[in-house]
TrEMBL record:
Annotated ranges, domain PEP-utilising enzyme mobile: 619-684
Domain (Pyruvate phosphate dikinase AMP/ATP-binding): residue spans on this chain: 35-134
Name by which UniProt lists this protein: PEP-utilising enzyme mobile domain-containing protein
Pfam families in alphabetical order: PEP-utilizers, PPDK_N
Membrane-traversing stretches: none
Sample GO molecular function, one term: kinase activity
Species of provenance: Phaeodactylibacter xiamenensis
Amino acid sequence: MSKLSRLQQLESLGWPVPAFTSVAYADFLAGERPEGLRFPVAVRSSYLTEDGEENSQAGQYLSRLNVGESELESAITDVFNSYPTQEGTQVLVQEMVDPDFSGVLFAFREGSWKLEYTEGLGEALMSGQQSGQTLLLPRFGAWDVRWSAIFNFWKGAETCGKPLRRAFIQLSYITGQLLEQPDARHGLDIEFAVSKGKLWLLQARPITTPEEAEEVLTSANHKEILPPEPSRLMTDLITDAGPALFGYYRDLDPSLLQRAFLRAAGGMPWINLSALLDTMVHWGLPTQLVCRSVGAEDFYQVGLRPWRCLAKLPVFFKVLGQQRQAKQRIQAWQRKAAVETDLGKAEREPFWLIDPAKAFSHWCDSFSSLYVELVTNMQILTGAMSGPVGLLERLGLLHRLAAAIQQKSASTDYLHAFREWERGQRSTTQFLEAFGHRGFYESDLGQPRFREYSEADWEALRKGVDFTASSKPPPRRKRQPLWAWLFRPVIDLIHTREWIRHETMTLFWEYREELNGKLPFAPWSFTQAELSAFFENEWRADEMAERQPPKPVGWDMDTFLCNQLGRRLPVTVLSNVSASQQNHQQGIGVYPGKVRGQVWRVASADLRTVAPPPFPVIILVADALDPGWVPFFSKVDGVASYVGGLLSHASIMLREAQVPSITQIPAQLDFQTGDWVEMDAQKGTIRRVEEG
């Protein structure tokens, strides 16, 4: 479809397009000139193969702006002369808009919508000669356009001013309608102008580079549960499960587009934050709901839109139906998963000898299925808990409830058992019977478990423990207050979530043990394809051992834009994000308490870093935490992390163990081991102080 045809389509659909006409080359030679337009005009190319589905040829042919009546003939001649051949061609003539703002929207079918705009004419912006402002545009609907006249529900564009913000909301709605047309397979590149608050569409061309589609990826809770360099096999397994994981949302609402919940970039598995926030916008829910729970930057900042929620009531009824039976359903699933794991292992056993490639493929499929079900059930539980937990936190009752309930979660039992082992109150054998399947970064199959540790490893775990110091006695149990019984269902859901993690880690251990036993080398630094090649006798064991796997980039950025080619840009390139980050001055208190002491800065939990520094009062500061940090928690007086949430596994453990702790501390606070700090976990603040 040519540029002219696209404008005719926009006009026929009733969208705001400046008046335009066209002139054919043969008619122009015969003396015909465009009439009925107000000057100045823009004379634009509309070559036969321009703006096609496969090749846009954007910028290859001449266009002239601000053309007066006396210049029209020469401008048209110049544009025709820029074509490789003139026969059968046309030139587009369009009234100029005097814009307050101009820009371009890259709206991909599968990916985020990136909007770039600048004041005045946008030709320098379109040609790449000037950098404008950049936003990611949420997908808004018709009712959002209507209500935007009354309510400011999009804080992410607050600095734009109301007229421009409303124009962007209208642009989003129109774009969604245009993408329902079948002729823009990968998406549309839309040039627009805003004049006195009115939106004008100048042109729209098909996107011909789908590999440029960007998603916003975040480490979020992956930074908590996976090591700084996750094993390649684990990364491969879980990113392959990305579309199936997003299937949870599509089962609730089939109108959602297919997206991947996880994506690989730089050899690391990242959570697709843009897909989750687009889902929140689609359902009318605040995007902050997701960002606060995973500790990620809210690049949309879209608030609650009740009119959209009403339209999605069937979805919410499905969610409520899931959550009402969440505990019983998930307990039944866990029992079923344990049986299926045992049956699958027995079914694979003969094939490891006669067809190991088939056995390995079955192993991968079985683990992926387990992982998808685990994450889906975790999402159901988190959704059921997040509302009540948020309310309790605002009322200042969350930590009191955790302390008042006498029964603790499986994660807190794990912490208490480790403390008992450290102090000689529980033998290694007793600890292994209950928690041998746990370990550092236990969500990664490639990480060793406690039952694989050597004697030297166990000695390293005990290093730094002061056996002469009397341990803090556990808090004396009091009668449970009556008000705590009102919120007992919330605690039951929290405990179910920690229980399912504990039990599923047993199944993870079984998968790890099985694959380790079938290979003469450690399989975790290889991908599924590489291991399949070995099982199919394409590579020998000595060749596998000599292979040097590429080094992953690590969790080097918390949140970033990434296209299909792997190009990564920090999310701070977005205008609204760079402004909002400057306002982030404090974290979220997990369990209250004031602690003044010295920082123990730890980047990664392992046997090399587990020995604490010789400080009288220690405050652990880490990028992110999970229950695998238990050997660290037992040695400190306070804990602070940059990434996390109120419902993260580590937060639940620290709250129930009554350890003063903070999560989501500001990224600009850079602490090093030995720094003197004071943390106030009630307020969520941590600051440097004078020594001593």
